[in-house]
């Protein structure tokens, strides 16, 4: 699966997901790096069919109102260390990828993977 990790999340997370065999970009890989605007992230997401991984609730609004980005994984853990985030996400990654076959919006919090219809 193709992913695009937003600026609010570490490049380290993108690298960890890539080790699981996925094609991952971080906003640092884009021309405007971490200054990339949300609408540009949405454009890349749609053009390259990338799931946006973000903590930014603005992407939820965009998905609900404008049907953008392509797909969204919202990280709603609050403050969390990079190590804790990886330990939370990586064991759930296969399930998340499977759920994205039929859903567009998934949320990961500290206790659950929530699949939104």
Proportion of residues in extended strands: 15-25%
Distance between the termini: 20 Å
Main sheet strand line-up: 2-1-3-4-5-6
Whole-number mean pLDDT: 97
Based on the structure, what is the oligomeric state of the protein chains? single chain
Instruction: Work out the count of structural domains.
Output: 1
Main beta-sheet strand count, sense and barrel state: 6 strands, mixed
Global Rg: 13 Å
Please describe the structure with a list of short key phrases separated by commas or semicolons.
117 residues, alpha/beta, 6 strands, 21% strand, globular
Quickly describe the structure.
This protein has five helices and six strands.
Task: Tell me what you see in this structure.
This protein has 117 residues and is an alpha/beta fold. The protein contains 5 helices and 6 strands; from the N terminus they run E-H-E-H-E-H-E-H-H-E-E. The chain has one domain. The protein has a 6-stranded mixed β-sheet, with helices on both faces. Strand 1, helix 1 and strand 2 form a beta-alpha-beta unit. The longest helix has 11 residues.
């Amino acid at each position: 699966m193709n992913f695009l990790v937003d600026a609010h999340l570490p490049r380290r997370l993108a690298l960890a997901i890539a080790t699981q065999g996925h094609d991952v970009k971080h906003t640092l890989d884009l021309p405007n790096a971490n200054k990339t605007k949300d609408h540009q992230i949405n454009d890349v997401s749609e053009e390259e069919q990338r799931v946006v991984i973000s903590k930014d609730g603005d992407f939820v609004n965009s998905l609900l109102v404008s049907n953008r980005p392509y797909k969204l994984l919202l990280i709603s853990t609050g403050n969390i260390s990079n190590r804790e985030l990886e330990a939370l996400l990586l064991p759930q990654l296969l399930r998340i990828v499977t759920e994205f076959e039929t859903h567009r919006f998934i949320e990961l919090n500290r206790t659950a993977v929530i699949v939104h219809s």
